[in-house]
Task: inverse folding
């Protein structure tokens, strides 16, 4: 492994101290410190940590507020689980697991995300495998549309889907059916892009070796290519799930009344009006379910890539 | 594959001939012609029917007519019967009455994107170059927002910015302001910072991915040739990362132009209305005729060039890998 520049200053520091550059006498004075090319990047470090605190602390506070004992969403009043399971003395109808409205929304959220995940990822993976070897104008056009659905602002997809189901495809009812079709359409590009990138980095050699050793094309895909693709497929599953359960833009336009609104839409609607810590509990629930799926994904990933190095780096490469 | 072995086996020779005839590049085995299309077919059909066709409906409504009684749109699917009457009416609104909204959207998006870039580049640069042993931790923390609902992240700010929320209590405690500020009553600053907060994770990760791949020897060459760290950065790193910067700018601006929810949650005031809000309002009000479809069409056309740019970059990156 080549040594990175970042590792060097520490070595210098420990031996005899940095060599003061021309123009400054000492690294002790502020100007000298500034001019020293081997100084530690303290300003950058501070900014990075400040950013991380800014991006994550508010969420932690919001999770904490879901266990508030009072009605306030902004001030901590003590610990209780009344917004999760209800409290005998308080009005239990506002709690996440008690209120029939929120419970139905929770089930709708999970149903939509699991269905979308199990439809979009196989479709996308098969598409990515097929498109990488099938040349011609049809696959090129289909791939173009996939990329298009990836970059297009979600509100455009949501509104055009609503108009589509209202005016042309009238047999698709708004509600779970319409929501599911729209979500799969919007999510299908994730597995396609992730799996394609992975396939291009794998190359064709392993598959060719398998067929040279007597495997049929289908066997080569099932026993050689798919196992190599498992990491990318897992990342796709986790990303599609996380993105679907949080989605409220497409789904909101395609809900048929309050009973098919998933939790994300409820949170959006309540955030603009009556806020109670139960909304925080609902958002925390979404966070928690995404976390569970992500942890399952990471554990499976570890199992599959056991003995391979650079797992984290590779996993992030899928994301970037 | 050597020519001797297969020649002794007639079945394989047939395979080789078939492959040559189909004109495909030589792979290790022969696959029937329909083999790969079968895999791609379901996905292809799905995007054709459920992604392309809805757009045709949008266009048909935008160029269509309106029910005289209910004022609901009547889509016209035959291009030779299309009328531009409603499209032109809406165009007048877009170039007239809505102009202040569009200018505001543009300003908000530009300011928010600029702030995003400065913060995102700093963070990505630090983690890529100086992350060292902590790189894994940093990456986990940078990826975390992807798994936290956008709503959850906005909700937490709605609560912090309440008149009696923690932001105001800190500010009044430090005597920065004498009275709590009502951040959520149509303050442009809140909306712009909300946009930055919402979309910055999508910028950091691609930038990090790129900066991490920059060859360290190029930076060392810059240093060896006499540039100090600052000039190495300006002359080497920054020009190298130009494609990544452009791509990440597009990633965050595209959704910002269609954003209405950040605005609705953090302000909800007509003083901060953005183009996305116009779209959303046209969906909520009934009897608006084909307005929603026409606005969607305008937005799609407006964003076409950045979208195509980003698609080209994605395709190029895939080929290079």
Result:
């Amino acid at each position: 492994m080549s040594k990175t520049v970042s590792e060097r200053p520490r070595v210098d520091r420990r031996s005899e101290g940095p060599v003061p550059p021309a123009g400054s006498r000492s690294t002790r004075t502020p100007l000298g410190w500034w001019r020293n090319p081997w100084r530690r990047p303290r300003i950058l470090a501070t900014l990075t940590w400040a950013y991380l605190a800014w991006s994550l602390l508010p969420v932690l506070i919001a999770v904490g507020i879901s266990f508030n004992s009072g009605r306030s969403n902004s001030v901590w009043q003590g610990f209780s689980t009344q917004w999760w399971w209800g409290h005998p003395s308080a009005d239990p109808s506002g709690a996440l697991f008690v209120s029939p409205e929120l419970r139905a929304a929770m089930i709708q959220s999970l149903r939509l995300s699991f269905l979308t995940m199990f439809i979009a990822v196989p479709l996308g993976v098969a598409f990515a495998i097929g498109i990488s070897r099938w040349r011609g104008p049809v696959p090129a056009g289909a791939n173009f549309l996939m990329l298009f659905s990836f970059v297009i602002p979600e509100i455009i997809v949501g509104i055009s889907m609503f108009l589509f189901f209202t005016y042309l495809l009238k047999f698709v009812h708004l509600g779970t059916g319409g929501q599911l079709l729209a979500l799969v359409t919007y999510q299908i590009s994730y597995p396609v892009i992730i799996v394609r990138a992975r396939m291009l980095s794998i190359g064709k050699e392993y598959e060719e070796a398998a067929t040279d050793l007597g495997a049929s094309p289908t066997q080569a895909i099932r026993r050689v290519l798919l196992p190599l693709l498992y990491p990318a497929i897992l990342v796709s599953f986790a990303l599609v799930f996380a993105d679907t359960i949080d989605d409220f833009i497409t789904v909101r336009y395609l809900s048929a009344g309050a009973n098919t609104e998933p939790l994300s839409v409820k949170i959006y609607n309540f955030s603009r009006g009556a806020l109670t810590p139960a909304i925080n509990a609902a958002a925390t629930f979404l966070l928690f379910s995404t976390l569970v799926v992500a942890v399952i994904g990471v554990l499976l990933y570890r199992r599959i890539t056991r003995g391979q190095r650079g797992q984290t780096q590779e996993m992030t490469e899928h994301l970037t | 594959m050597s020519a001797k072995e297969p020649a002794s086996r007639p079945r394989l020779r047939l395979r080789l001939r078939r492959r040559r005839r189909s004109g495909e590049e030589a792979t290790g085995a022969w696959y029937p012609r329909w083999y790969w299309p079968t895999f791609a077919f379901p996905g292809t059909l799905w995007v054709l029917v459920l992604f392309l066709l809805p757009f045709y409906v949008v266009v048909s409504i935008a160029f269509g007519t309106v029910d005289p009684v209910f004022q609901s749109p009547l889509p016209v699917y035959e291009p030779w019967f299309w009328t531009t009457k409603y499209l032109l009416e809406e165009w007048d609104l877009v170039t007239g009455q809505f102009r202040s909204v569009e200018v505001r959207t543009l300003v908000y998006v530009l300011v928010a994107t600029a702030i995003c870039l400065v913060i995102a580049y700093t963070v990505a640069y630090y983690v890529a170059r100086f992350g060292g042993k902590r790189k894994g931790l940093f990456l986990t923390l940078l990826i975390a927002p992807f798994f936290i609902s956008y709503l959850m992240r906005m909700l937490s700010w709605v609560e912090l910015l309440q008149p009696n929320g923690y932001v105001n209590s800190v500010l009044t405690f430090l005597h920065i302001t004498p009275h709590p500020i009502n951040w959520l009553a149509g303050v442009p600053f809140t909306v712009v910072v909300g946009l930055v907060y919402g979309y910055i994770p999508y910028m950091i990760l691609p930038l990090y991915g790129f900066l991490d791949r920059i060859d360290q020897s190029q930076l060392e060459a810059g240093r060896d040739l006499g540039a100090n760290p600052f000039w190495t950065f300006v002359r080497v790193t920054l020009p190298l990362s130009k494609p990544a910067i452009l791509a990440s700018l597009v990633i965050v601006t595209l959704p910002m132009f269609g954003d209405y929810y950040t605005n609705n949650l953090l302000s909800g005031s007509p003083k901060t209305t953005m183009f996305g809000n116009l779209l959303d309002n046209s969906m909520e009000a009934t009897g608006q005729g084909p307005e929603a479809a026409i606005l969607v069409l305008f937005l799609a056309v407006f964003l076409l060039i950045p979208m195509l740019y980003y698609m080209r970059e994605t395709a190029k990156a895939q080929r290079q890998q």
In short: Confidence is low (pLDDT under 50) at residues 1-17 of chain A.
